[in-house]
Amino acid sequence: MAIERELKLALPGDLPAARADALIAHLDRLPGSDARGERHLVNRYFDTPYLALAGAKAALRLRYVARDGHAGQWLQTLKSVGEARDGLHVRHEWEQAVHGEALELAPLIAACDVPATAALLRDEGAKVVAQFETNFVRRLSRYVAGDGTVVEIAFDRGEVAVQADGQRHTEPLIEVELELLDAPDDDRDAQGERILQALAQDLRAVLPELHSDNVSKAQRGYRLRQKVLGG
User: Nearest to residue 125, comparing CAs of 101, 102, 99?
Assistant: First the structure.
């Protein structure tokens, strides 16, 4: 099991391309930052018809990652209940490679060491179906602070989509995610989280439209689903 610590910053869906490019240029010049290229991510989120996972504040995702010059890879991810405050998301996460375009729930249940979450997936897993999708291009950078703290900076641009009655309903998605990958002493003194906040402040100086966001991509999908389907 991993504990994910991630600071999420959102941007308006109609942000002009030139403003986004200014942020990318700043990231390229940021001392301690190393550009890691772009990836195209397609993410399908699954739940039961009566949204049992959402009710338990869990998320189940199948992701396809494509990079230029590399074969694409399918991954499945389970995230359990966590907390979000001032854009900082802290939650349990389990991620595994799968053989193809389908969930493989047995190994995911075996890996999940939160009993209530494992039981939920064991009881409800056979009933899950795809509910919505996020589709975006992710531009990655890795930032290393002077104390050795490592942060992944992801700039995502794309859409959230729900398929209903033969139509694809979409909303724009544009976010910056700052994920704490490594910190000295397992971040016991919360220095890593302070570095996340300092990085966010630096990015806001370049792009004031950035604002802390407690809404995950999964929550965005559920909200669009409710808007489209009415329940």
Answer: 102
Could you tell me the domains of the chain? Answer: 2-229 (2.40.320.10)
pLDDT digits (tens, 9 = 90+) for 89-138: 778 899 999 999 999 999 999 999 999 999 999 999 999 999 999 999 99
Question: Is the distance from CB of 43 to CB of 61 less than 8 angstroms?
Answer: yes
Contact of 161 with 168, CB cutoff 8 Å: yes
Cα separation, 208 vs 210, in Å, equals: 5
Q: How many residues are given for the chain?
A: 231
Residue 178 class from Cβ within 10 Å (0-12 exposed, 13-18 middle, 19+ buried)? buried
pLDDT confidence of 184, banded at 50, 70, 90? confident
The amino acid at 96 = Q
Q: What is the pTM of this model?
A: 0.90
